[in-house]
Amino acid sequence: MNRRLAAALALLLAPTFAAAQPPEAARAAVAERDYAQAQRLLEQHLATAPDDDESRFLLARVLAWRDQPERALPLYDALLARQPDSADYLFGQGQALLWAGRPADAIVPLERARQRTPDDPELNAALAQARAAADASPSPDAAPPRARAPVTVPSGAGPDGEARLPINRGVGLSARNEWLDRDLDHWRAVRVDVASVPRDALGWYGALNHERRFGLSDTGVEIGLVAPFGDGWTLQAEIGGAPGAEFLPRGYGDLRLQRALDGGWVLGASVRHTAYRDTDVDRLALSAEKYLGNWRAAYTLGLTDADGERLVGHGVALDRYYGERSVIGVHASTGEDTGLQGVEVITSDVDALWLQGRHELGPTWALQWSAGALRQGDLYERRWVQLGLWRGW
After folding, report:
1. Which terminus in the chain has less CB density within 10 A, N or C?
2. Rounded to the nearest 5°, which phi and psi values hold at 190?
């Protein structure tokens, strides 16, 4: 009789114990960095299991990872109301406050968490960042340190090497068509990108592109590494080329150092050496970006040496973020830069204006696009449209 009673009690209490852990599907989505799916699953689960603190804690972290720290704060308040001395909850609340642009408020829970886990290096780094940001006293509407500072591929001043943003983990396919005046042949390109660039961790990306210009075809490849370190520093290295190519670079190397500062500022510098068939080009690019709310403004100074000829170019950009990870922006460049006339690298005045964007189609799919025009001195003008799809995993 006692065994039957124990079995009945076990069956009765099994749902209660099961609810103490986040759903397996939500944890799997987090492991795959599909935070949108994880958020949906956790919210559905908590609607039927409101006392599951482990799921509430995971949802709070997911919201912070999705750049929604303000929505995570009420969850941490509820968690700490039940367990006010939890170092994990205090640390999470401090991070959310820091990412929400409230570094002075973040210091209190971070210091309380440090009293309980004094040797946690990640906690100590967050506390140091909060103190430095509070001392700087940024304006209330300034972007939090590193909250939106993306890692971009160095690009110089023109759209040909235009900056690309590796979006977490996934693969993309894009096609580009360019129309030239003066009865010149159109240019066409197809590109495949793959990337695994997590937030604040070592990441990598690569691409394979096939282009047709001047009746010739070239295929190139590129690979890159992204390495965050220290307090807001990021080192990015990229190499690539097309050995034996007619017009694409036969080889190039690029090294970029970037620093995210308090108040939404990001400063960067990159050096790039490019070897074409008959010409070597060296470029130094210095950039400054400012993030304010959902807006990003950027300026790039490009200093180029093409076989001893010194060129100066300028690039500006204004982007607006919307939704979760969608963005639209207008970009422009002017000054002196290199270009191609046939298979020969030439230098001239260059003016360009283009729009580009990324629009989320769901939790894993996105549309990437750009359209614009460029004038290569008195040689030619070209207009282009590029469309692509991105599939995250």
Report:
1. N
2. -130, 140
